[in-house]
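Retry 2 of 3 after timeout on previous attempt. Resubmitting structure tokens to design endpoint.
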């Protein structure tokens, strides 16, 4: 089955702005649709929203960061509906046990405290520093677009999405069962979801194509939209084996 519908799943506190720069570079006839998770506080609830809001029975599916995890959960719930899968700057493993997991929770809750006490915009100005290529930290247009995007959402939404991420499921089994054209993509300088992490995902889904975008961090789709769109175009033009 094929479809011109391309469902796009944003990352933590992101919205359609994260994807907008890609649209002029996507194949003609592609119909993008960005999903809003509302107050969903689990990855499964986000995936269920995708399936409810999808405008067509079959669709290509691309998810960035947290959205990649939601995309994998969509495939778990309804694999027959997904014709193509793209996972951008993301991961597949649950929160680690022990000290590593506790440290992740502490870092996320520290940002939540900033959002609650100083406002989401202040939190975003801290968060974004490590989420783009180091050379782009001084790019005021890029940084403002990311910060403003976050500021459109509330601290309550941030809390719900942190809850979802800390309880994220292990999607290793989903990767192992993939048969549709699959793209794994990340920024070469993504320090949060590293190229090595995507290479580990490819080991579980050997047919997946791995594209590493040079001169980009975690927000690759906003940092290097043309390069990301070119990769997505090649992916959309692939057919299932």
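Retry 2 succeeded. Sequence:
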């Amino acid at each position: 089955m094929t479809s011109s519908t391309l469902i796009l799943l944003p990352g933590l506190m992101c919205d359609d702005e994260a994807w907008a720069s890609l649209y002029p570079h996507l194949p003609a006839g592609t119909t993008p649709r960005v999903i809003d998770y509302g107050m969903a506080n689990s990855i499964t609830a986000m995936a269920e929203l995708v399936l409810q809001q999808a405008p067509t029975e079959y669709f290509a599916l691309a998810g960035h960061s947290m959205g990649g995890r939601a995309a994998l959960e969509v495939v778990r719930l309804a694999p027959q509906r997904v014709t193509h899968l793209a996972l951008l700057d993301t991961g597949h493993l649950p929160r680690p046990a022990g000290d590593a997991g506790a440290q992740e929770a502490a870092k996320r809750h520290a940002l939540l405290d900033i959002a609650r006490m100083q406002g989401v915009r202040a939190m975003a100005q801290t968060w974004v520093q490590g989420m783009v290529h180091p050379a782009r930290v001084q790019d005021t247009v890029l940084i403002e677009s990311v910060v403003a995007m976050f500021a459109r959402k509330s601290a309550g939404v941030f809390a719900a999405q942190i809850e979802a991420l800390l309880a994220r499921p292990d999607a290793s089994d989903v990767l192992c069962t993939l048969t549709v054209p699959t793209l794994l993509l990340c920024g070469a300088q993504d320090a949060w979801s590293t190229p090595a992490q995507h290479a580990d995902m490819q080991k579980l889904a050997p047919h997946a194509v791995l594209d590493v975008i040079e001169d980009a961090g975690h927000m690759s789709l906003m940092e290097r939209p043309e390069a990301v769109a070119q990769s997505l175009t090649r992916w959309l033009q692939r057919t299932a084996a």
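Attempt log closed. Residues 41 and 160 are 4 Å apart (CA to CA).
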